[in-house]
Amino acid sequence: MTQHVPAKRAFLKGNFHARAALRPFGAMAPGAFEESCTQCGACARACPEAIIYRDSDGLPVLNFQAGECTFCAACIEVCDPQALQMEQPWNWQAVIGQSCMSLNGIACRACEDHCDARAIRFRLETGGRATPSIDQDSCTGCGACAAPCPSNAISFALPAANPNTAHDGGHPC
Ligand code: SF4
Ligand code: SF4
Ligand code: SF4
After folding, report:
1. pLDDT in tens, 48-103
2. What distance in angstroms lies between residue 39's CA and the mean position of ligand 2's atoms?
3. CATH number for the domain whose boundaries are 93-160
4. So what's the architecture of 15-90 in CATH?
5. Disulfide check for 42: which of 10, 13, 78, 101 has CB 3.0–4.6 Å away?
6. How far, in Å, is the centroid of ligand 3 from the Cα of 8?
7. What pLDDT score was predicted for residue 127?
8. Any residues with Cβ below 6 Å from ligand 1, and which?
9. Running DSSP on this structure, what letter comes out for residue 130?
10. Strands 130-134 and 52-54
């Protein structure tokens, strides 16, 4: 299956305040997506990773606890009403929360081990602690780091300058 590179991000670094639903790859902006999606479920059936679930309104959302997005675009190809479109930006990025074990002095690098993009960096601190951070230039928002995290510390957010930003806060996975 053809692999697609997510549309290049164009946003200010390090300024997250997004709170939009984590819709499938290619989703139109909030509002437009909800108006266009017919809740037919075709995207969920087409997703080879089986990560597309329904939210409480019946609309598709990604569940990164179930797996990662490979950006294969199978969901886009089957979306007849074009609520998912290839040209839409994909600006989601991982955010590490305060429940991270490493931030609390317990050795863990599970997320780093699962990040093919090598976007998770650890800075050694005194006393043997290592502080993780996300390299925003490298993180693709694939979600591969979320499920392996033993403390469920990784959420996903859109940066402040993203035109798809709708609300405040990260999206838990
Ligand atoms: S791009 Fe592929 S892996 Fe990602 S949600 Fe769509 S069908 Fe699933
Ligand atoms: S979302 Fe993907 S690219 Fe970003 S830190 Fe997690 S595994 Fe790495
Ligand atoms: S996997 Fe989770 S707990 Fe472990 S270092 Fe990464 S964010 Fe922290």
Report:
1. 999 999 999 999 999 999 999 999 999 999 999 999 999 999 999 999 999 999 99
2. 28
3. 3.30.70.20
4. 2-Layer Sandwich (3.30)
5. 78
6. 27
7. 74
8. 24-25, 46-47, 49, 51-52, 69-75
9. E
10. unpaired
Of all protein residues, the one whose alpha carbon is nearest to atom 7 of ligand 3 is: 100
- Where in the chain are the domains? 15-90, 93-160
Residue 8: Cβ within 10 Å count: 8
- Testing ligand 1's pocket by substitution, the residue of 64, 71, 92, 140 carrying the most ligand atoms inside 8 A of its CB is 71
Read off the pLDDT of residues 90-145 as tens digits, 9 standing for 90 and up.
Answer: 999 999 999 999 999 899 999 999 999 999 999 988 777 789 999 999 999 999 99
> Is it the case that residue 146 has pLDDT exceeding 70?
yes
Confirm whether 15-90 and 93-160 share one CATH topology. yes
* Residue entry with tokens 């998770």: 120
Longest dimension (CA), the chain: 56
Q: Cβ < 6 Å from ligand 2: which residues?
A: 94, 114-115, 117, 119-120, 134, 139-145
Q: Which residue's entry shows tokens 């597309």?
A: 52
